[in-house]
TrEMBL record:
One of its GO terms (molecular function) is ATP binding. One of its GO terms (cellular component) is nucleus. The keyword Kinase applies. Keywords: Kinase, Transferase. Pfam families: Pkinase. Residues 1-318 form the Protein kinase domain. This is Protein kinase domain protein.
């Protein structure tokens, strides 16, 4: 999520969560920060987008982005394209359904994320154990359910110090929105939800002109530049396909340490699907073909969002 620091404050019966982003004025970071604030404001109330509670600007050029607390990443990158976790078929379909619902929310607000990947997909609680094939970091089968002591950070420092130093008047709804009762944390704990974060390079248009984003999750048409603009939804669908490929097989579909070699691999190399099917004989043809259709190199033949959402929803038990 960019240059950020998580602060968790305890105050009697109340708990607040503060995400601190520092942006120097008159820089690209500052411009992107303002755009990110606009996008998060536009997306407030979405089920699958991190909720912006408030923001504060200081005289030192800091911006405080106060977000809802989502304690877990979907998966964790290890090395050489390998991630720490694979999911059962039920887990893959449920993750797909929630991510695609999130993309639909972005589309309805005319937003293209441009950097969907497991590091930018946070969860309200650990993955249910029945969804997980191995003991990954975000699994209920290891570790505490919600909070670790190390996550409590520097209690009672950030807001108090800033108000004293800069004479800041926090937004009028700060205390009522950010400070939450422990019962709210119980509700969060009992409701597994996937949400997108990090809109720093996102676009306020579905027509994309640039190649910003993480190479390993970027579709081939962006590198080929065969058109002046690209379909932002199809771009995000490819990134979701990469994320679901990781959920099934524990690794990226394309990987190279050298960026230009990685780009050429995405453009030219096929995915050896039979090899991966043999690695996961427990997965049905339906789920493998679903991921395959999202990783279609030709965007005109790539599955549409509506079709993908319909298929994923059909496979999730009510």
């Amino acid at each position: 999520m960019g240059p950020s620091k998580l602060e968790l404050r305890h105050d009697g019966w109340r708990t607040s969560v503060i995400l601190h982003k520092r942006y120097m004025t008159q820089t690209l970071y500052y411009t992107n920060a303002n755009k990110e604030f606009r996008i998060l404001e536009k997306l407030k109330g979405s089920n699958h987008v991190v909720d912006l509670r408030a923001s504060i600007e200081t005289s030192a050029g800091d911006r405080l982005l106060i977000l809802e607390y989502l304690p877990h990443r979907l998966f964790t990158f290890m090395e050489d394209g390998i991630y720490d976790c694979t999911l059962t078929e039920l887990g893959i379909w449920e993750v797909a359904r929630q991510i695609l619902n999130g993309l639909d929310e972005l589309r309805r607000k005319n937003v293209c994320h441009k950097d969907i990947k497991p590091e930018n997909i946070l969860t309200s609680q650990k993955l249910p154990e029945e969804w997980v094939m191995n003991n990954c970091e975000n699994s209920e089968s290891i570790g505490p359910q919600m909070f670790k002591a190390t996550e409590l950070g520097h209690s009672n420092i950030l807001i108090d110090d800033l108000v004293q130093k800069d004479n800041i008047q926090p937004p009028s709804d700060l205390l009522t929105i950010v400070l939450i009762d422990p019962t709210d944390l119980t509700e969060l704990k009992n409701d597994f939800k996937i949400k997108f974060v990090d809109f720093n390079i996102s676009s306020e248009s579905l027509n994309i002109y640039d190649a910003e984003g993480t190479n390993a999750f970027t579709p081939p048409e962006v590198f080929l530049k065969t058109a002046n603009t690209f379909d932002g939804v199809k771009r995000d669908l490819w990134s979701i396909g990469c994320s679901l490929f990781i959920s099934a097989f524990g690794r990226l579909p394309f990987w190279h340490r050298v960026p230009i070699h990685l780009q050429l691999s995405i453009i030219n190399e096929p995915i050896h699907w039979e090899h991966y099917r043999n690695c996961r004989p427990d997965l049905s043809n339906d789920v493998v073909e679903f991921i395959k259709s999202l990783l279609e190199k030709n965007p005109a033949r790539r599955m549409s969002l509506d079709e993908a959402l319909g298929i994923a929803t059909k496979h999730v038990p009510l």
